[in-house]
Amino acid sequence: MSNPATKRLEYIDVMRAFTMFLVVMQHVDSFVLRGFNSPVYKVLLLIRMPMFFFISGYIGYKALNEWTHSFYVQRLRKKAFVQLIPATIFFLLYSLAFGINPLSTFSANGFERYWFTYVLFYMFVIYYSVSVLMRKLRCSSTTQLILLIVVSLPMWLLFVQCARHGVKWGMMSQLHIDRLCHYFVFFVIGLLCRHNLSFFHRFIGHWAGIGVVLLCFAGCLALIFTPWLTTKAPGIVNYSVQMLVVCQLGIILVYYFFYRLRHILANGSKLSRGLAFAGRRTLDVYLIHYFFLAPLTKVNITSGPLYVLSSVSLTLCVYMLCLCVSRVIRISPTLAHWMLGAKKEG
After folding, report:
1. What are the φ and ψ backbone dihedral angles of 5, each rounded to 5 degrees?
2. Which of 102, 186, 217, 289 is 20 to 30 A removed from 297 (C-alpha atoms)?
3. pTM of the full predicted structure?
């Protein structure tokens, strides 16, 4: 097992910025644009949320021997504040700004657009609790990760079966437990990769390892875009290929791309520092960007190149506007603390 450094890694921050860019782009497509559907778009948007949860698990990993009771309480308190308070404030602000009844919204769809941080908090609760339990039982880190995998796979299968058969989650959907079941496996894979970081980097650093990943990814894509998978393959195979295998292989390829650029991204240039900064403000962008999209009118664009240009340009504009608003909010340490989960000064 490797002992990863605790300092920030620029390529991870830039990868987070790229992932948030995809999230905003998907919302630009949902709120504003319509009329074009590209296979490349489909794949990128398919992996965007799994990649975020993978990164969250990757950077949230802590060695098992750190999990004392006091450390558990400290980490859980911190995560509860950062993940829950800002999202709740922005959920209420969004409802107030656009004349939406927050109670009606919650009873129908939970926290709706702000579900991500709540689900991420649930994941940290599970991970932290398992870690404390394993340390008390004097189990190894390998046992801890096996237990997390054993927990995550049935959760994912439950989600798949419910999605296949149209089963409603009811109250569980309001609390976003369905999304927890869907994405927790990617969080665990992020923990697993960080725990075995040396092996993971050796694997993707060898031409044979990344070659196998690339070939498997291409093969799965071929399956996705052929009628056989959707018409003749068993439903569980269809869902597994699209929602688990393709997502995870895509995540590894995206990670590999940014990992290969790690020295360039750490060179201290204005571009690399700007991209890393954008990656450190992903929570801010996530919380703020809906306010710029909701008032816009839907536009129908059938031309592929024009659609891509419009989507990328509008996404860049929204991202930059969010960073500007974030900067303004952060002028006040109190507002930054409560609205964006920033650390209190002093």
Report:
1. -70, 155
2. 102
3. 0.91
- Using DSSP's 3-state secondary structure scheme, residue 34 falls into strand
| Cα separation values, 110 from 116, 125, 147, 174, 273, Å | 11, 19, 29, 4, 37
Nearest 10 degrees: CA dihedral of 177, 182, 184, 185?
150
**Tens of pLDDT, residues 169-197:** 777 888 899 999 999 999 999 999 999 99
Beta carbons within 10 angstroms of residue 240's beta carbon: 17
Closest CA to 16 of 53, 71, 41, 66: 53
Q: State which H helix or E strand residue 338 sits in.
A: helix 333-340
**108 & 6 share domain:** no
DSSP state of 196: T
Q: In terms of residue numbers, what domain contains 25?
A: 1-37+267-346
Helices and strands, counts by H and E, the chain: 19, 2
DSSP H/E element including 22 = helix 10-31
Let me know whether 288 and 257 are in one domain: no
300 and 183 both lie in a single domain: no
- Say whether both 9 and 101 belong to one domain: no
